[in-house]
Amino acid sequence: MRHLFRVVCGLDSIVIGETEILGQVKKAYALARDSGDAGPLLHRLFQRAFHVAKQVRSRTEITRGSVSVASVVVDLALKIFCDLAQRKVLLLGAGEMSERTARALHARGVTDIRVSNRSFERAERLAESVQGRAVAFQHWPNECREIDILISSTAAPEPLLTPEILGPLIRERLERPLFIIDAAVPRDVAPEVNEMDGVFLYDIDVLQSIAEQSLALRRLQIAPADAIIAEHVADFRACYADASLQLASAA
After folding, report:
1. Which of 139, 131, 148 is nearest to 90 (CA)?
2. How many CB atoms lie within 10 A of CB 167?
């Protein structure tokens, strides 16, 4: 019981408090129920587990803060602009991180998402999935005249964004700041870019620091969560013992 409750609460996950495992357990339970492999006891046990997960999330801060790079990127963009609905975003790269970021931005209401990648086909697939627009890789610098946020996560061996490339484009922005989030390793943005007027750069070190702070906060919530779980384990065991006695008496 305790193991099941800790699993659905995300306490045994590599990323403490993540909620994806809860969905996986729900699917596993649904399959067992539909195939007739989950009897009355398992049914009550799993229903209690789902209740425990909900209670732990509401009574602790186990899910507070962003712990993945993609979620940190989106939260950072929200802190900068408050409302992302009217913002224009360019994603450099179409890998897994860019895909997660694009979907998170789309879920937060961003309607203007542009994707540029060395493989135009991959850029098209990602852009289409978020109702965005693909940009040929050789033309991505031109987008810097219009966008508000540039998020870069490519596998380039050397920086793609340099003062030489961005300088002329920034001067055309009419005092509109450009926020650049560099999630690449090695970095896609030359450090000197952060010294340019009107440009604000956040690199992978900043993103990982924010994620680690959130993880540290979540670790502090393990003890309160375990206390809630212990209460439910004791209660469920007592309820099951009473039910067993009643069945024995009836027999």
Report:
1. 148
2. 12
User: Which residue is associated with the tokens 């789309």?
Assistant: 106
Q: Euclidean distance between the first and final Cα of the chain, in Å?
A: 27
- Describe the crossing of helices 96-107 and 69-81 by its angle, rounded to 10 degrees: 40
Distance between CA atoms of residues 243 and 222, nearest Å: 31
- pLDDT at residue number 85: 87
Q: Are 78 and 102 in contact (CB under 8 A)?
A: no
Exposure string for 188-203, b = 16+ CB within 10 A, e = fewer: bbbeebeeeeebebbb
- Residue 188 · residue 182 · CB < 8 Å: yes
Encode pLDDT of 23-49 as tens digits. 999 999 999 999 999 999 999 999 999
8 confidence band (pLDDT: 50, 70, 90): very high
What's the CA gap between 46 and 39, in Å, rounded? Answer: 11
pLDDT tens profile 158-189:
999 999 999 988 888 877 889 999 988 889 99
